[in-house]
Amino acid sequence: MNNFIAFFLHYSNQNMRENGYFGIGIMNPKTEMNVGSLWRSANILGASFIFTIGTRIAKQQSDTSHAFKSIPFYYYKTFEEFYDAMPYDCRLVGVELDERSEKIETYTHLSRCIYILGAEDIGLTAEARKKCHQMIELPNGMYNVSNSGCIVMYDRHLKSALKQ
Predict the structure, then answer these.
(1) Do residues 42 and 24 make contact, with C-beta atoms less than 8 angstroms apart?
(2) Of 124, 141, 154, 159, which sits with the fewest C-beta atoms within 10 Å of its C-beta?
(3) What pLDDT, in 10s, does the model give residues 39-58?
(4) CATH label of the domain that carries residue 56
């Protein structure tokens, strides 16, 4: 292993130990544009991976930064398959209007979590909502699903930077 790779792996592992990690994905995405936009934003805002459940989306035209070279994309056929594959001691956070949802303005992001967003027209399934350890909601209404994901990741980024 060359020195750069060894340094990168050490830095990445150290950064994860100190700051945790997160993934973000969409359940039953409707368009490839949403997935590509989320992928690009996830790469910029520090996500460890992205995923989709239920709908496989091929190469995204909206991924103009070629984020696929930097951040892994996972596809799961069912919610059960996704849930069974979650990392140990990682919490699932739903982004959805729900009676359990906490407003993002007051939300404290978990150090190890996966954010899951539902399709714009149907949201998360009842099963997914039930399995979420926490739920958060965004202010003032309905957003495009990739924009919702970007807001959540930016909020995490901003609050993390303010702590330092």
Answers:
(1) yes
(2) 141
(3) 889 988 999 999 999 976 65
(4) 3.40.1280.10
